[in-house]
Every structure is written in C-alpha cells, then in structure tokens.
Amino acid sequence: EQEKTEYKQRIKQLLKEKNAVLVAHYYTDPEIQALAEETGGCVADSLEMARFGNQHEADTLIVAGVKFMGETAKILTPEKTVLMPTLEATCSLDLGCPAEEFTKFCDQYPDHNVVVYANTSAAVKARADWVVTSSIALEVVEHLEAEGKPIIWGPDRHLGSYIQKQTGVDMILWQGECIVHDEFSAKALKDLKNVYPNAAVLVHPESPASVVELADAVGSTSQLINAANEMENDTFIVATDRGIFYKMQQSNPDKTFIEAPTAGNGATCKSCAHCPWMAMNGLKAIEEALTDATGHEIFVDETLAAEAMKPLTKMLNFAA
Ligand code: 13P
Ligand code: SF4
C-alpha cells in the first residue's frame, strides 16, 4: 500500500511536469481508472478514448489500455508524444488479423466496403474504408446499407454476426475473436440466471451469439455502463471484462454486479473475465513510462498513419 501511494504521488507529479494526461480504458484495474479520474484524465470506451486524446491540449498522452488504442491516438495526433505503460499489451483480435493476409482477403472482393474494428493494427486500418468501435458499429453498418454495397467485416466474428443479424446486411466475416469474451458460456449463464431470477444480463457483443441471445442489454462498454445506471434491477450479471465493475459500482453503490461465468468455471479458463493485456497496465509501468519514454513510446509508420487517419477521421466525424 505504501509503495502504491508513492507511485501515485510520483505519477501525479510527472503528469504535471510533462504536461501529460492519463487516458484509461474501462478494463484497466480500478486503481488505474481512479488515478485517471483524480488527475483530470479520462476513463472511457475505445471511441471516447480516441476522441479525448484528439481534443486534449496535453503534449503527452499516456494511454493505459492496449496497443491499438495507443496507435490510434498517435495516428490522430502525430504531434503528441504517445506513451504506453507497456508496448507488450496487445489484443487477440489484432494478433489474429495480420495485415498481409487481411489485405489478400479484401482483394478477393473488390466491390465490398471494408469495415474494420478499432482493435486492429495501423496497417489493417490503412486497408479499410471504415473503422468502427462497438459503440457505433451498428449505426455505421446501417448507414452503409444505403450505399447498397456488401461489407467485409473484420476481425471480430461474434460482433460481425451480431451486426449482420441486427441489420440483415450482406457481410463477409473475418474469423477473429476476443479471448476474454469468447469464453463466456451460455449454458453456465442459464444456470446462474436460475440462481438470480431478477438479475438483468448485460452482454458485450464480442461474446458468442448464444450468450448474446440471453442478454437484456447488448452494447459497448459505455453502453453497458449506461444500462447498469438506467435499469431498475438490483442485480446484474455482466458478460465483459470485470474492470468495468469499477464504474458500474461507482454510480450504483446499492446494486450488485456479478461476473458472467466462463466455460472453464474459473478452473481452466484462459482469461477468466479479465483481459491479460489490459492487466499489464500497472502503476509501476506508468511511472516508468513517464520517467523514461524509452521502450514506451508509440511510433507509427508515416505512410500507414496517413492512410489509417482517413477512416479514423471518418469514425470520429460520424460519431460527432
Ligand atoms: P469498447 O470499450 O469500445 O466497447 O471496446 C471493448 C474492447 O474490447 C476494447 O478492448
Ligand atoms: Fe482485445 Fe478482448 Fe482484451 Fe479487448 S478484452 S483488448 S478485445 S483481447
């Protein structure tokens, strides 16, 4: 505890010295989210993180999240220094969608609009017509429906098939998945619903269709937090990373939030409702990044960044 307090003090001082601001995702650990709040930074979903970094006047952004979030920040504001607690924090969706293979895949369908999730590399974004986050994916696909062109969607197959079902749009899906959400189990969730018959079920659409079917509300992290605030149930079963409980509990101290079960039932699951890469964003790593940027700074190839900037700007304008 003493050590943590010291790290926090030092981070606060460094943020001021370097005119830096902490931008954290809802899946980071509670103490990181609290620190972002206390220091005038932001805690947000991936869309809002991009928007906040883009608009803030700080010289340096320290992005507590995963690599694609740091890269997005750098692409949108190349004049800023973008640091991350660790450059090792990746995402299974990004890893499962190598740019070269994705480009070949897209080249087979030249008459399709290419829509990619923000959880991708700069090179994959550079190949896309649109970049979306889960907050606006449905709206963007509905908007594109008017153009009448079919869509290539990548990389999350669960989110893709959810959107396909909702909109009826003709979509070809890249077969990627999030290791955290993919593990939620419909069978175990049904059993848990029997234990808590009055609980509302909140599900992130990166979860399998069988889990989404059991949901009372489906949406991005920010949409699930809104649902927790607005719904009158006193208990919620939540199928997303448990980092989100910090915000849900903060605004709803009298409500109970329960983790949705994974297939391994805690024993064999790989990630057990917490992203291993989000978990790398600790206080020590933040302090290190602010003390010495070496090995913490995000750089994006300029040519790729210029290409990726186009669909990212479209995303921000669409969401505005
Ligand atoms: P959102 O916060 O945009 O819903 O994204 C979820 C996610 O998995 C980010 O890693
Ligand atoms: Fe990627 Fe899933 Fe982790 Fe989000 S929770 S960063 S989608 S692996």
Automatic annotation (TrEMBL):
Originating gene: nadA
Q: What is its EC number?
A: 2.5.1.72
Output the lineage of the source organism: Bacteria, Pseudomonadati, Pseudomonadota, Gammaproteobacteria, Alteromonadales
Q: Which family does it belong to?
A: Belongs to the quinolinate synthase family. Type 1 subfamily.
Q: Which InterPro entries match?
A: NadA, NadA_sf, Quinolinate_synth_A_type1
What highest taxon heads this organism's lineage? Bacteria
Catalytic activity entry: iminosuccinate + dihydroxyacetone phosphate = quinolinate + phosphate + 2 H2O + H(+)
One GO MF annotation is:
quinolinate synthetase A activity
Q: What name goes with this protein?
A: Quinolinate synthase
